[in-house]
Design goal:
Elements lengths: L3 E4 L6 E6 L5 E6 L6 E7 L7 E3 L7 E2 L4 H9 L7 H8 L2 E6 L4 E7 L3 H12 L6 H19 L2 H13 L13 H4 L4 H11 L5 E7 L3 H11 L9 E2 L12 E5 L6 E7 L5 H19 L4 H8 L8 E7 L2 E9 L3 H18 L3 H18 L3 H13 L6 H8 L2 H11 L5 E7 L4
Parallel strand pairs: 3-9, 11-15
Antiparallel strand pairs: 1-2, 2-3, 4-8, 4-9, 5-6, 5-10, 7-8, 12-14, 12-15, 13-14
């Protein structure tokens, strides 16, 4: 195995990338002087991967929504015991999550990382599903779905996605629906596991008080070689137009909450990273507490300190979402549309751009001194098709004209939709 040293030309930070003989990509960042360790073992498999095939399949397989999340839950149970019982003996704090485009199993610890790493690599490679355990899990996840359906923040977000996306599965709840998870059985779980949990589709990222040689030795002991199956995941055609401009829903909230989103053209790899940087800085300028729009809306009582923005992107989707609380969310939407038009005509103020760019750059640099952030940086970069330090390089080269061009090209009024959750009228 060849150790490939990845270095940031801006900061001098380094990590190691190894393509293990098993097929697994391994990222290691030795952080001397730190006392903790963070490890993530992940697969590029999330809620949006509902249609796929391998090189040996004649046709595409379509699976029920929510199966990636269901599979994540089931992997923590093996034939002998619950995995958390094993971690309790090493003192590690373990968890897992499923997002739209990935599933990750992780632990953090301050000692015995070698034993915890062996547990992590072992149980993720040992699926154990039975009819009885699947039926039990359907009830548990069904309750989880009902809980999120009662969560106003969750509802306002997914309602916005339904406003923006016609066909892309990103609009579907990560956990699926009561109806979709009822279709899941042990055979289907094994099929998805054997397809997506192939080591050629997975990555290990570990950072902190570790030895690269020790980590690779454990990988040699625990990893079972996998043949690359030529996995292909496909998504339905998605029009560039939004579905509808608005959805309103009633929930028990004191103040109405809103998500206002722009549907942008999707892209991938380094192009997506550059676009997301431009979008993030542009949104940061608009939502900055010192901006004219923010101060005007705040002084009018239209927004409060919860007003903010995020860039939400992945395979086949890209949007910029503004969120907050407001008794008049339509006034926030109109103000945003006016602000985008104003910037499109006259550009951004250079001093505002430089302030937000430097602030964003500072956040990226600070994260390099955080063990958890570094481990997440490595695994996310790999799954996004870029290198761990590319974000710093791209942000350094970003200009105000890049941000203005993004606003002009992508944030037009016809791509704007709003989701509101408000309390019932008494």
């Amino acid at each position: 195995m060849e150790k490939n040293i990845l270095t940031s030309s801006r900061t001098g930070d380094q990590c190691i990338h190894v393509k293990h003989s098993s097929g697994l990509d391994v990222y290691i960042c030795e952080m001397k002087g730190f006392s903790s360790v963070e490890a993530l073992f992940g697969t590029k498999y999330g809620s949006i991967n509902t249609r796929f095939r391998t090189s040996g399949d004649a046709d595409y397989t379509e699976v029920p929504e929510g199966i990636a999340h269901f599979l994540e839950h089931k992997l923590f149970e093996n034939e002998d015991c619950d995995v958390f019982e094993l971690y309790a003996k090493t003192g590690a704090n373990a968890n897992a999550f499923t997002s739209f485009d990935k599933t990750c199993y992780l632990f953090s610890c301050s000692k015995n990382y070698q034993d915890s790493l062996k547990i992590l690599l072992d149980f993720v490679q040992k699926p154990y599903f039975t009819k009885e355990s699947v039926n039990k899990e359907q009830g548990i996840i069904g309750q989880e779905i009902q809980m999120t359906n009662d969560n106003p923040e969750w509802r306002v977000f997914f309602n916005l996605l339904r406003c923006l996306y016609h066909n892309h599965p990103v609009k579907i709840d990560i956990a699926g629906t009561i109806e979709s998870i009822a279709q899941i059985d042990a055979d289907l779980l094994y099929k998805c596991y054997n397809t997506f949990y192939n080591l050629n589709n997975m990555v290990l990222a570990i950072a902190g008080n570790i030895s690269a040689d020790e980590v690779l030795e454990i990988c040699d002991q625990c990893l079972k070689p996998c043949e690359d199956k030529g996995l292909e995941s496909v998504f339905p055609d998605e029009p560039s137009e939004i579905v509808q401009p608005e959805i309103r829903e009633t929930q028990p909230v004191g103040t109405p909450i809103f998500n206002i989103g722009y549907k942008c053209a999707p892209c991938s790899g380094r192009e997506r990273l550059k676009k997301s940087m431009a979008a993030s800085v542009a949104a940061g300028i608009i939502t900055d507490a010192s901006s004219d729009m923010y101060q005007r809306l705040l002084n009018s009582g239209i927004i409060n300190s919860t007003f903010g923005a995020e860039v939400f992107c992945g395979d086949g989707y890209f949007s910029v979402i503004f969120s907050g609380e407001s008794a008049s969310p339509e006034k926030v939407r109109d103000a945003l549309a006016e602000e985008m038009e104003k910037i499109s005509r006259g550009g951004l103020e250079e001093k505002d751009f430089q302030r937000i760019k430097k602030s964003t750059y500072g956040i990226l640099i600070r994260e390099l001194n955080n063990v958890e952030s570094v481990a997440n940086l490595m695994i996310n970069a790999h799954m996004d098709g870029v290198k761990p330090y590319d974000a710093i390089e791209i942000l350094s080269e970003l200009t105000s004209s890049d941000c203005t061009s993004f606003i002009r090209d992508e944030l037009s009024a016809d791509k704007l939709a709003m989701s509101v959750v408000e309390g019932a009228v008494q």
